[in-house]
Q: What sequence folds into this?
């Protein structure tokens, strides 16, 4: 899976290393969409944290001044608290949706190819450096099912 922090910090390197593999337009758009989703999620997270900060501040203010508040002030602070609670729930839902979209996009993007990997669309573009073993040494060219039927196992 993609490291989101490294993805944002090295977006250009990530983008061009994937582009070396002759990616299709859909994958290129997914990479750009992922960057936008990560940034939007970060903004939504900041917004939620500010709402929670305001909720804590209001709650603390209410607890500190509880005995000296008039009924109107108590009602006002409670209304602010309820309003902030609804805003927090909306922000949490928005954040949850962004995270879900982000994960869906991440699963569609391939891993970064190694620097030593040759440019090309797939493994057919790779060159053979060395071969291990030989086909002529393989005396038994049966698969495991055929061997099982011959030996009755």
A:
């Amino acid at each position: 899976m993609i490291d989101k922090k490294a993805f944002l910090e090295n977006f250009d390197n990530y983008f061009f290393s994937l582009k070396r593999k002759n990616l299709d337009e859909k994958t290129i758009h997914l990479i750009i969409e992922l960057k936008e989703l990560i940034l939007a999620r970060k903004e939504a997270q900041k917004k939620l944290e500010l709402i929670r900060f305001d909720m804590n501040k209001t709650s603390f203010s209410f607890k500190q001044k509880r005995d000296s508040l008039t009924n109107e002030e108590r009602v006002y602070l409670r209304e602010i608290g309820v309003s902030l609670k609804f805003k927090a729930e909306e922000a949490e839902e928005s954040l949850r949706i962004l995270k879900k979209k982000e994960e869906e996009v991440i699963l569609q993007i391939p891993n970064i190819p190694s620097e030593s990997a040759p440019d090309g669309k797939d493994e057919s573009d790779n060159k053979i450096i060395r071969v291990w073993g030989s086909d002529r040494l393989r005396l038994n060219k049966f698969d495991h099912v055929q061997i099982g039927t011959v030996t009755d196992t």
Observations:
- The first helix runs from residue 4 to 9.
- The mean pLDDT is 83.
